[in-house]
Amino acid sequence: MPLKLPDKLPAIDLLKKENIFVIDASKATKQDIRPLRIVILNLMPLKITTETDLIRLLSNTSLQVEILFMKIKSHTPKNTPIEHMKAFYLDFDEIRNQKFDGMIITGAPVEQMDFEEVNYWQEIADIFEWTHAHVTSTLHICWAAQAGLYYHYGIRKYALEKKMFGVFKHHVLSPQHPLFRGFDDVFYVPHSRYTEVHKDDILKEPALTLLSESDESGVYIVEGRGGREFYVTGHSEYSPDTLDIEYRRDLSKGLPIEMPQNYYIDNNPSKGPQVSWRAHAHLLFSNWLNYFVYQETPYNIEDIK
Fold this sequence. Notes:
Elements lengths: L2 E3 L4 H7 L5 E3 H4 L7 E6 L5 H12 L6 E7 L10 H7 E3 H4 L4 E6 L15 H14 E7 L1 H11 L4 E15 L13 E11 L2 H6 L3 E7 L3 E7 L4 E4 L9 H11 L25 H17 L11
Parallel strand pairs: 1-2, 1-4, 3-4, 3-6, 4-5, 6-7, 7-12
Antiparallel strand pairs: 8-9, 8-10, 10-11, 11-12
């Protein structure tokens, strides 16, 4: 599919090498169709890596998708060049009067802090509130899933005894749900987090539906407002080497970290990862785009409410 991306975004050249069809904004303007407008609030430290991971998964549809990137005004990232942020990212104030067919809010390296202690919590809260009337469907990932559940429904997060780190088997609780079209009975998802939400808390909230879980890693996908919100606690978007990079980074810093579970071939880091989640990740994102963005959003984007 054609993805409409900002001119000169680094991900364009990276993904063209994978034979993924992306076009820059200059070329996209010549196509006489209305693209789906997706805004990505990227809170991850390595912005370019996350951009590429998400764009790769959003490419698996037949419609033109226009991608915009949003940043937190009250936080300056340390691991991405300021020139990149200025060239490709917008502040919330610059788009708060616009409407979007879909939104993705990523994880963030702040999960061990109380939500209100995060220095950009108020801005995040304002964005969560804004999505209600400005976005057809919002996909929250990892920390954003916990933060969104807390803001919208008062669902607590709980500290784990040790980091949930590895690739875990999951199953679907609602097999007929459109989000899981084409899924196998079991599928695998990477997780990398120190906190969790509890199943019992989700089930007590009538406005939420638990859609998928894991015997090992717990709650995985929760639905709110009939698909206007999805909360995904894992990292299906991760590239094959992401957990390896995190593991070796923590080892080099002398941090207490165990080898990621169910990840390396023969549990041997020298043999590299065995990728078991890629097909699931593509299905998850394409089903979300098709059934909960494209088929639900009005033709006139200003009619979103």
